[in-house]
Each structure stands twice: as structure tokens, then as C-alpha cells.
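The following record pairs a protein chain with its ligand, iron/sulfur cluster.
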Amino acid sequence: MTSENCTLWSNMADCARLSGCPFFQDTLSNMPSMSESYKRKYCRGDHTACARYLVLDALGSQHVSGDLFPNMEERARALIAANER
Ligand code: SF4
């Protein structure tokens, strides 16, 4: 593996929030049927596109609701915009 490949791989590393994330730990009361696919795409792929991660990073964990799933980026961005005013 070249150093360039290593850099690309490191950009797709596991999300740093895995161990404490209710979505990844399957502790949300209403897990979506696509949850395993989302985990591959976001939690073990590109966490910077995850709606939960975006809200957590911008506003803090108290703003991450139990029905906000990784694929809801549009909702996350609207929530962030509303709270940054
Ligand atoms: S990518 Fe999103 S859902 Fe997955 S562990 Fe990180 S914050 Fe949680």
C-alpha cells in the first residue's frame, strides 16, 4: 500500500463517536431497517456526512434527537442553521 492509499484509507476510518453513539450501539427505540447499511456508509465510512455527527459537532449531544438518523443530513443542517441564529 502506498502512502497515498494510507491517507485515503484514514479519511474513511471509524467515527470517533462509535462507542457512545446510541445509533451505532442499537439503543434507539426506533432503529431504521436500513441501520446496518447506514453503519457501513457513515459510521465505518464517511462520518462527516452523518446527520447525527453534524449536529453533535455543531450544537452538542443535547440537540441530537433519538429519531435523527445518519441519512438525514438536510434535517441536520436545518436544525444547525436554526440554532446558530
Ligand atoms: S457516524 Fe453518526 S451514527 Fe455513526 S457513530 Fe458517528 S455520530 Fe453515530
